[in-house]
Amino acid sequence: MMNIKNIFFDFDGVLAESVHVKTEAFYQLYLPYGEEIAEKVVVHHRANGGVSRFEKFRIYHSRFLDEEIDEEEVQELAEQFSNLVVDGVVEAPEVPGVGKFLEKYHKTMDFWVITGTPTEEIKQIVSRRELDKYFIELCGSPTKKPEWTNYLLEKYELDPDETLFLGDSMSDYKGAKAGGTHFALRSYEENKELFGDYTGLRFYDFKELEKKIDFTQ
Questions:
Q1: CATH number for the domain harbouring residue 62
Q2: What is the pLDDT of residues 163-180, one digit of tens each?
Q3: How many domains does the chain have?
Q4: N or C: which end of the chain has fewer CB within 10 A?
Q5: Beta-carbon neighbour count of residue 129 at 10 Å?
Q6: What is the C-alpha separation between 1 and 127, in angstroms, rounded?
């Protein structure tokens, strides 16, 4: 039986129903290159949730446009992307039950966010959603999730066996694996195919998660 004292939360798709906001932003950014390119970008993005936008821009230009882009161009695209998504993510509905879950357990467990969203941007989003009080630290790109997982485990001297990573993407799963923590998949229609072979813990909403794990120990 798990005795969970620490939780690492991904953001999009775990705390907020905001995955579609990012998908639409990638589509709009690459639509000037044609619908076929934009669709390819969306397919890759959906299969690689949690990978930073900076990395994706380099991949998409190289793979789909046969162009290499420099750091300045990457930053310009990132700024355009941020302008498209921040308000949408702030206004997105919460994942069912997460607000009550955070309020119920934040005094008896410790919470962090590990996300592919840039660190400064996720700080702005969490602040605007008035969730600051629940999280000890907000960890975003460009640092990757496995690095953040190990960093937090070491910095706060956490026991991996008492730590749970809640995620909805392969990068979240890899982050949990890297640190040896437990993992629970927030499962929904868009990631069903990606995790078709996954046999571990799944949940759709936080009421279901509470039924599967006893957090009151």
A1: 1.10.150
A2: 999 999 999 999 999 999
A3: 2
A4: N
A5: 17
A6: 35
3-state SS, one letter per residue, for 182-199: EEEEECCHHHCCCCCCCC
How far apart CA 154 and CA 44 sit, in angstroms, is 33
For residues 30 and 99, membership in a common domain is answered with: no
Alpha helices (H) in the chain, listed in sequence order: 19-30, 35-47, 53-64, 71-91, 98-105, 119-128, 145-155, 170-179, 206-212
Cβ atoms within 10 Å of 114's Cβ, excluding its own: 32
One domain for residues 204 and 97 = yes
Same domain, 127 and 85: no
Q: Whole-angstrom Cα distance, residue 9 to residue 13? A: 10
pLDDT digits (tens, 9 = 90+) for 91-150: 999 999 999 999 999 999 999 999 999 999 999 999 999 999 999 999 999 899 999 999
Whole-angstrom distance, CA of residue 14 vs CA of residue 206: 9
What whole-number distance in Å separates Cα of residue 13 and Cα of residue 21? 11
Tokens 């498209």: give the residue.
Answer: 84
What is the token pair recorded at 44?
A: 């890759």
Assign residue 159 the CATH number of its domain: 3.40.50.1000
Q: Check if the beta carbon of residue 12 is closer than 8 Å to that of residue 20.
A: no
**Residue 193 sits in the same domain as residue 102:** yes
- Residue 1: inside a domain, yes or no? no
Host domain of residue 122 = 6-17+93-212
